[in-house]
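To: structure desk
From: M.T.
Subject: fold request, one chain
Message: Could you run this one when you get a chance? Sequence is below, nothing fancy, just the single chain.
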Amino acid sequence: MSASTFTACKKEGCMDANADNYNDEAKKDDGNCTFPTINVSSGGKSGDIKGAGGTASNTWTFTNNNSTTGWDMSIGATSGSFRLVLKDAGAVTVLDKTLTAGSGAQDASGTSSSGTAGTWTATITLTDFNGSGDYSVL
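Reply: Done. Structure tokens follow.
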């Protein structure tokens, strides 16, 4: 008589729910998660975004010698949202705009509310974002 031992195979995959390639059936992380990309130009005033279903956020600073700034953002996406938040040198929110794939306009532009000149902060958040886009502050 012989005894056989069976070990359960653990399905490998990305287990980070924020990743583009998240696998809710994975039981063991394979270390190969990929995340949305938020590119920022060297001056911090423009860039592009790309995602395949994941969530990511990036914050940086830029110099604004004026009390307002022009801004522009657009997406070509099948799902998710793209949020742009600008804060002035006093950390007061002067812009908080979200574009959502398939709902309303897929591009927007305008002028921020008035704030304090100096070092401003920009934050971009992509949530469950599948697509691409770009942004700029003028």
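Reply (cont.): The chain has a mean pLDDT of 92. Let me know if you need anything else for the meeting.
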